[in-house]
Design goal:
The complex is a heterodimer.
Chain A (H helix, E strand, L loop, with lengths): L2 H19 L6 H9 L23 H41 L1
Chain B lengths: L9 H27 L12 H7 L6 H19 L3 E4 L2 E3 L4 H27 L8 H24 L3 H27 L4 H38 L1
Antiparallel strand pairs in B: 1-2
Helix pairs in contact in B: 1-4, 1-5, 3-4, 4-5, 4-7, 5-6, 6-7
Classes of the chains: A mainly alpha, B mainly alpha.
């Protein structure tokens, strides 16, 4: 199998297993907040996929998996964007440099 | 250890946000420079006219470098969803700072972890938007950028020792700084919470070491397969 495709499919498998088996316990900072009583200070910010769940799906496994996959797609788009922007930036400078002459 | 909004003092959060933005710009320019470096002449120093204008373009492995960064970001995002229970009613997950830094260098590692944190805070409410600066300082700057130099200093002697030391440095120092920020903001007393924070995060550091070693092994095997 092509290595590049494998490297992109692997995180989707990881999110699949994460949505099935990941622990739902609070992480270390949240535990600390609960133990020391400052967890009420946290402000909920309105996000589309708050808490790694897809808004319209009630099943926990499916909603987590969909949210994770969406996150992967978003990151991929972000890096495509950076790559494209730097390509454009370089072309723009090339045009500027050639215009000077 | 994604700090949510409300735990931090607004002044501190804003200051750290500005620092994180500056560091992000610096690292982007550094990555930009590595991507164009193989040509030899950079944008600024084209004193002898005609060479400078055409020497400024993408090097051949620039696309590969960005591909590697994108893949590392995807892997880290996926593994950060995988919470592993460590003690009664507590879970920990990979930060991935050292993994990113070993793959893409300290500047690339900083950008990878920051991009993951930005996506998490904007779309998943994992870590606050105002606290993003503090999170970038903790996880991207200390966890990735600084721990890379620990790894680099020790990797000549023993690879496994270097990974272990750098992972422990990255996780425990990030936790320490997180606690210092919380202490400065007056959210929790530094001395009271120190023991809990450190003991739980040293377990998380062990987890980080194991996963980082496994991921780097997988990457090394697939890279060797590509050359054949």
């Amino acid at each position: 199998m092509n290595k590049k495709i494998g490297a992109v499919i692997f995180p989707i498998f990881v999110t699949f297993f994460a949505s099935l088996f990941a622990s739902k316990n609070p992480d270390v900072l949240e535990t600390l907040a609960i133990n020391y009583g400052f967890d009420k200070q946290a402000k909920e910010i309105a996000s589309i996929f708050a808490g790694y769940s897809f808004p319209f799906i009630s099943s926990h496994f499916l909603s987590t998996f969909c949210a994770g996959a969406t996150g992967l797609v978003l990151l991929y788009i972000l890096y495509k964007g950076i790559n494209g922007a730097i390509g454009r930036f370089i072309k723009y400078f090339l045009v500027l440099e050639t215009d000077k002459k | 250890m994604h700090i949510p909004d409300g735990f931090l003092n607004n002044n501190l959060a804003a200051g750290l946000f500005a620092g994180a933005l500056g560091m992000l710009g610096f690292c982007l320019s550094k990555v930009f420079r590595t991507v164009t470096a193989s040509i030899g002449v950079l944008a600024g120093n084209n004193n002898n006219g005609n060479i400078g204008s055409f020497a400024f373009k993408f090097s051949d492995n620039a696309g590969k470098y960005f591909q590697k960064m994108a893949i590392a970001a995807l892997w880290i995002f996926a593994f950060q969803m995988f919470n592993v229970p460590i003690q009664s009613a507590t879970s920990a997950h990979l930060i991935g700072g050292l993994f990113a830094a070993v793959l893409a260098g300290p500047f690339g590692g900083f950008i990878i972890i920051s991009s993951v944190l930005i996506v998490q805070s904007l779309f998943f409410a994992d870590g606050g938007i105002l606290a993003l600066g503090a999170n970038i300082l903790n996880m991207a700057f200390i966890g990735s950028f600084l721990s890379y130099y620990i790894y680099k200093a020790l990797s000549g002697k023993n690879y496994y020792l270097a990974i272990l030391a750098a992972c422990f440095f990255s996780v425990t120092t990030a936790a320490l700084f997180c606690l210092i920020e919380l202490g400065i903001s007056g959210t929790v007393s530094f001395t009271k919470a120190f023991k809990d924070m450190m003991s739980l995060h040293s377990v998380a550091a062990l987890l980080e070491t194991v996963i980082t070693l496994a991921l780097l092994k997988v990457f090394k095997i697939s890279a060797e397969g590509k050359n054949e």
